[in-house]
Amino acid sequence: MQKNNGADLFKSLATPVYRGSTIVFDDFDSFEERKKRQPDGFSYGITGSPTHRQLENLISDLEGSQNTVVLPSGQAALVLVLMSTLKGGDHVIVPDSCYGPLREFLTQHLEKLSIDITFCPPRNTTFIEQSIRENTRLILMESPCSLTMEVQDIEKVAEIARRHNLLTAIDNSWGGPLLSRPFRFGVDYVVEAVSKMMNGHSDVLLGSISSADDGHHAKLRSLQDIMGMYVSPDDCFLAIRGLETYSLRQEKQSRSSEVISRWLEKHPAIASVYHPGLESSEDYRLYKKYFKGFGSVFSFTLKDEKRLGEFFDSLTRFRIGASYGGTKSLIAYYSPESLSSRIYHEGTCSLIRLSIGLEESQLLIDDLAYALNKII
Questions:
Q1: For residue 182, which of 203, 213, 152, 214 has the smallest C-alpha distance?
Q2: DSSP per-residue letters across 108-157
Q3: Full-prediction pTM beyond 0.90?
Q4: CA distance linking residue 43 with residue 25, whole number of Å
């Protein structure tokens, strides 16, 4: 006789990691009716385990939503929202400054499926409403937008969408649920790159979609299954552990970002600083409405780019890398050519993006000062 392994008596303080592809059933009837366990029950490993559900529940609590699905990356989450809401012949409205890989998916793949796309200047809600057609199904937002940090009027866009019986989704990765909770303003889907601030340690790729409607959630879960968007339970465990320090990290990184961005505004080598939380930003009023706190990711431009490489190579505390939200500070470069696909972007300078980590702000300022002063 097989002994009980005592799992029911081992009440771990940490969330257990359930690894398994195959679910077994107690009897024939349970197996025959396994599909009825969805959207959140367990019928096969691809749609998750108790470890996954714990992470999903924690994210739902943070977002103020009914449901969440975790996915292999933030990009996967954006793709799944589009695939669950659009079909051939439909039309979607997207901010011109959206995440680069999302733009590529839209223009290189969805257009081939006869889905029409309109890219809009993100701040212009009138333009967004005037772009609505009979076949429009979804308005997608990203706020602040990638790299150039425009803030969209989320409540106004959601109100326009409801009036026209359209769905809305927002990429909330920059702020995350501690800084911004878009469900308060009437959106239907909130997408997060869990890899960033929520996990916070630059060691997993994860995304999430939270939704306010049970029917939308069921469709997302079904598509996750069909498209094979499996998430490692070990990555879920790491994200759960990251969430335990999320608020502490957010507070520290926000405080440092504010100090550093204000210092950069005054440096003679800097042309512009793009952070909507600064009073100098044209988005400051909207930022104060939608965000609680000061985000840790922002961009800036140099007055003279002739010695750009020397500036980057002089940094010792900032590591060069195209991500954000982790404990270690990062810097990334975006050439004018990389922004050339944007229809409404008028800038001609390179953009430099900083992600502020947990290092002491004065050490990071000293690092930037040394590199900037070399190129003046």
A1: 152
A2: IIIGGGT-EEEEE-TT-HHHHHHT--TTEEEEEEESSPTTT-PPP-HHHH
A3: yes
A4: 9
